[in-house]
Amino acid sequence: MPKIKTNRAAAKRLSRTGSGKLRRHKASAGHLMEHKGKKQKRNLRKGTLVAKSDMKRMNRLLPNL
Question: What is the pLDDT of residues 14-58, one digit of tens each?
Fold first, then answer.
């Protein structure tokens, strides 16, 4: 059985925490920021964790990360 390759696109966007969860950036922070409030923009700068329901798919993309 061959080794599973890491999906490089996912590896560049996600990182593993010490406890094994996946950290990601929030969406909607790329452009069109002028109409968004200060609080929303500030919260978009912070990272967040991948949802529990998506972890099975993400772990399949990132077996060695």
Answer: 999 999 999 999 999 999 999 999 999 999 999 999 999 999 999
- As for how many domains the chain has, the answer is 1
Residue 2, domain member (yes or no): no
Place of tokens 């950290």: 23
Write down the pTM of the prediction. 0.82
Structural domain for 44, as ranges: 8-61
Cα–Cα nearest to 62, from 23, 27, 29: 23
Contact 10, 59 (CB under 8 A): no
- Contact between 23 and 48 (Cβ < 8 Å): yes
Q: Cα angle vertex 50, ends 60, 31, to 5°?
A: 115
| Paired residues of 29 in beta bridges | none
